[in-house]
Design goal:
Layout: H1 8-13, H2 22-32, E1 36-38, E2 45-47, H3 49-68, E3 72-73, E4 79-81, H4 82-85, H5 89-95, E5 100-105, E6 108-116, H6 121-131, E7 140-149, E8 163-173, H7 176-196, E9 203-206, E10 218-225, E11 231-241, H8 243-248, E12 251-253, E13 259-261, E14 263-270, H9 272-281, E15 298-302, H10 309-323, E16 329-331, H11 339-348, E17 353-357, H12 359-363, E18 366-371, E19 377-381, H13 385-410, E20 412-414, H14 418-427, E21 431-436, H15 440-450, E22 453-458, E23 477-482
């Protein structure tokens, strides 16, 4: 059977229903939408053009926010001398199991092993030690767009791969207060981007000591809930204190003529956010993309009988020309595919809005808008099409966030005991709000017995829990538990 005459039902059958096998659904959508393919190197993936186009939209949304807050982009080497990692004990202990090492270069044994960048704190600190001499050199606000290698034992496209893409911000400040303020500011940048552009609601808060970044004084995160009820850490911001500064000798002469160590931050978001985008909004027909990050916000599909094809294609091209200045729009005028096949393909690719136009529409000076999120069809006049499309896209963006927020609210539960928490994560899944006494042993016991971890200690907590879900002692914190990716 050729591509051009496959039926709608056969097209959709190529995607496993979410309710049948969520993991297979996720892989089917990624492969069918041509977001990625498996690389010949185990654990790695090739990001295909449509997937990379989404990443470019993520980059644009974040980069604009970074620059608006005074940050500049730079690039640092991906090879890190082993001696650099050893300068911060907690950091090297945390990353050593994931490091990939280069031991031979140019056919010769290297005098010192080089780690392939698992993260860049150490290589960047070595440069900051050269650049920062006076309080006048501060703050340093730098971001890097780069690839990272972490030798993962278990991989899943976008969510966890041996090599992935990300951005990592690294800043240096005169005081602890300034660095802590920067840490909070950048977490808020992430929250705003994920909720505003990706239409994904998140819980912002502080990680526990056990879950924080290796080498940080404190780690803060935004946590999102996926469609299968598991949590995903969508972005992190770390206050590093002066730990790295002391290890690398990053000192400056302050106004009082004394040498002081800088206080630092680091923060990052990776291509795993594309995995979140898929799992939060996707359905059994494929991707559902929020307009702000969709490679194409709208697709025009002419419905053109052979005798009237030239007229319909001309009208569709006119719509395309009018919209292209304000909307990322594409015209699908391929003659070898039927309109029905095109409908299915673009739905599967998650394009937020389909614009249909045929002979009858031309006579009535109208076209039909079809929403990907709801399937709702609306006939609108061609006159004023720009405003109608803009309004519909804004409605879709808002509706996707509202739907995801309802899902998160409906799948957030409370537990007072370990038995209740275990039952919820096994039968209902989702977030579980509960008390924690602050003892790492209780945190570990919850994880061992339920598979759930403390996602974070939220900045804005719901009604405070009185007792620790594990030991029954007085709760010092109200936290969010969940099984996670």
């Amino acid at each position: 059977m050729t591509e051009t005459n496959r039926t709608e039902s056969e097209f959709v059958k190529e995607i496993t229903p979410k309710s049948q096998d969520y993991s297979q659904w996720y892989v089917d959508v990624i492969r069918k939408a041509e977001l990625m393919d498996y690389a010949p190197v185990k654990g790695c993936m090739v990001i295909r053009p449509y997937g990379y186009a989404i990443w470019e939209r993520v980059q644009e949304g974040l980069d604009r926010r970074f620059k608006a807050t005074g940050h500049m982009n730079a690039y640092f080497p991906m090879f890190i001398p082993e001696s650099f990692l050893l300068k911060e004990a907690e950091h090297v202990e945390g990353f050593a199991p994931e490091c990939a090492w280069v031991t031979v270069g140019g056919g010769e044994q290297l005098s010192e092993r080089l780690a392939i960048r698992p993260t860049s704190e150490t290589i960047i600190c070595s440069m900051y030690a050269k650049w920062i001499k006076s309080y006048r050199d501060l703050p340093v606000l730098i971001n890097q767009w780069a690839n990272v290698v972490r030798w993962e034992k278990s991989v899943r496209p976008f969510l966890r791969t041996t090599e992935f893409l990300w951005q990592e911000g690294h800043t240096a400040h005169r005081t602890a207060a300034e660095a802590e303020a920067e840490t909070a500011r950048m977490l808020e940048v992430y929250r705003d981007f994920v909720e505003t552009d990706l239409a994904i609601p998140v819980i912002a808060g502080r990680k526990t000591e056990k879950e924080k970044f290796a080498g940080a004084v404190a780690t803060y995160s935004i946590e999102a809930l996926m469609g299968d009820g598991k949590a995903l850490q969508a972005g992190t911001s770390h206050y590093l204190g002066d730990r790295f500064a002391r290890g690398f000798g990053i000192q400056f002469l302050d106004e009082d003529n004394t040498l002081k160590y800088v206080h630092q931050t680091s923060w990052g978001m990776s291509t795993r956010i594309i995995g979140a985008l898929i799992m939060v909004h996707g359905d059994d027909r494929g991707l559902v993309l929020p307009p702000k990050v969709a490679p194409y916000q709208a697709v025009i599909v002419p419905i053109a009988p052979t005798k009237e094809r030239e007229t319909v294609i001309s009208a569709a091209a006119g719509l395309h020309d009018r919209l292209t200045a304000t909307v990322r729009v594409t015209l699908d005028d391929r003659a070898e595919y039927t309109p029905g096949w095109k409908f299915n393909e673009w739905e599967m690719r998650g394009v937020p809005l389909r614009i249909e136009i045929g002979p009858r529409d031309i006579k009535n000076n109208q076209c039909v808008l079809v929403r990907r999120d709801s399937g709702e069809k609306t006939a609108v006049p061609v006159d004023g099409i720009e405003d109608a499309v803009a309004k519909t896209l804004a409605d879709i963006q808002r509706a996707l966030f509202d739907r995801a927020k309802r899902f998160m609210d409906e799948n957030t539960h409370r537990a007072d005991t370990l038995a209740e928490l275990r039952e919820i994560v096994e039968t209902k899944r989702g977030f579980v709000i509960g008390g924690w006494c602050g003892d790492p042993d209780c945190e570990a016991k919850v994880k061992d017995e339920t598979g759930a971890t403390i996602r974070n200690i939220p900045f804005t907590a719901p009604a405070a829990a009185a007792r620790c879900v594990c030991c029954g002692g007085e709760a010092k914190h109200t936290v969010y538990f969940a099984r996670s990716y």
